[in-house]
Amino acid sequence: MTDALLEQILNGLMMGSIYVLVALGMVLIYGVMHVVNFAHGVLFTAGGYLAHFFYTRVLDSYPLAIVLSMVSLALIGIAIERGVFRPLSGNLRNQVIASLGLILAIENLLVALWGPNALQFRVPTTETMVSVGELRFSVHHLGIIVITLAMVALLGVFLKFTRFGTAIRATSQSREAAMVVGIPVKRVHWSTFAIGTMLAALGGALIGPLFLVFPQMGDVPLIKGLAGILLGGMGSVPGAVAGGMIIGVVESVSTLFLPTDYRDSIAFMVMVAILLVRPQGLFGVRMRGED
Amino acid sequence: MPRALTATLLLALLVLLYAMPRIAAGEPYALHVLVLCFVYAVPAVGLNLMLGYTGLVSLGHMAFAGIGAYAAAVMMVDAKIGFWAALALATLASGAAGAAIGLVCLRFRSHFFMIVTLALGLVLHSVMNNWDDVTRGAAGLGGVPRPAPIELAGERYSFGPLANFYYLALTAAVLVFALQRLVVRSDVGRILSAIRQDERLARARGVNALLYKTAVFALGSAIAGFGGVLQVSFLRVAAPASFNLAESINSVLIVIVGGAGSLAGPALGALLFVALPEYLRVASEWRLVIFGVMLVAITLFAPRGLAGLAADLVRRIAGKTPQERA
Questions:
Q1: The total number of structural domains that make up chain A
Q2: Which of A93, A135, A288, B239 is the most buried (most CB within 10 A)?
């Protein structure tokens, strides 16, 4: 029993890490631009496909493929911010509708280019096993958790201690006040978007080797990432990290007791319930931009 | 456009649509495509009332069509209830579900409303996909019968032949569009518009916004469910894939591209979405890529959709400068 429990906790931390990578990007973008990017899930998928492409077609190094995929998605993110979200700023309804258009366009572009079937993504790290006591798991699982924690730490340091990180935090507190003190708000917007899409690409590139690369692979991370943000309190970066991890671990452990068919549904219902009774999230961060 | 001209054109269009089975007698495929247009247009009318007129961006709309579709399918296949009774009951059921779920969703505003409708849409889809005992799960619920023959002017009128089902679907679509006009041009419609434009101001003027928003959510869901029943009796099967997130996005696409907040919008959108690709014969994934780009472009450059572009064109032909509306 304890072994099964430990195994599920490890699995949960791994899945939670993926949710955290998605949630972090969305929460940063929401913070500075006040818009939920519903296209974040397909950008995650695109990251998975591009990593697969770079690894199988261009070069034979998985870490380098991940980096190239992240760079590509950062550029795509900048293009999307410039071309779509900036012209529509201030009009939430149209921004959301445009993000639905991006979902359709990008997801089906991936299908058109690589076909509707899942792609195998074989990397060495999934085949190397580590055993601790009775438990055996792949290096890849550990890698996902370690890389995510490293990214979280890096991002925390960046936001807290660098000039540009401070500018991002200032902009998300008040756009007008940030402009008044001379912060280049436009640059903050596109770079935040780039950071967000880069993190989504990292998530897609990391999960691809475990669960294959397929056109809908970003759907569940999108919703779970959203749930993580809501759980942690909309607009809070530490809240998004905690929320994503909690969702990953709780849903993994719940498979020991509950049938898996409705696992996702239960997570969504809990999310709606949390919103109803505690809209500021578990950690009490104030909601912003909503009345 | 002068009123009389609009009315004449509308009448001509109706005559043309009702004469279609005779005109296209040798081309059952054209009729099939038109029926699909009606099947897509009907739920879009429900969403147009919510999104276009009231400003409620629901990301789970087709899940409510699924409630109607499955309710009717289960009634017809398992309980052997006739089509007409099943149609009425299933429409009511999806309306009631819309009212109940709407009451929860409408406690939230802007982003939160969208996220909650997205989540509940996914939950409903998951129920359709997994509740094997009732919905038969992912394989879908097959064997849905066509409506039983009716007696019309002393003659037996069966809905088996495509042309006859076409009349049923066309009449259903006409009724729904008429209902849309009735609602929009009434005091209720004006109140819904007021809520979209400035909810706080409307509330300050004494409008019970929650009541009206719940009502329009229920009505939109009922119309979606009505469309769902139409769909399952046409395709003869209720499948969860018809009511997933992608289909809900398609519904938003139809409303926005056609022209949100325009009476003809859902019809134009559905025609473009269903008929144009069939005509152009593009592969389905490229078709959706094009539609995705089109959706983005419409929000950027023509927020009033095709209906708005058409109205501007008419005005330009009539020699007046197009009036810009924010």
A1: 1
A2: B239
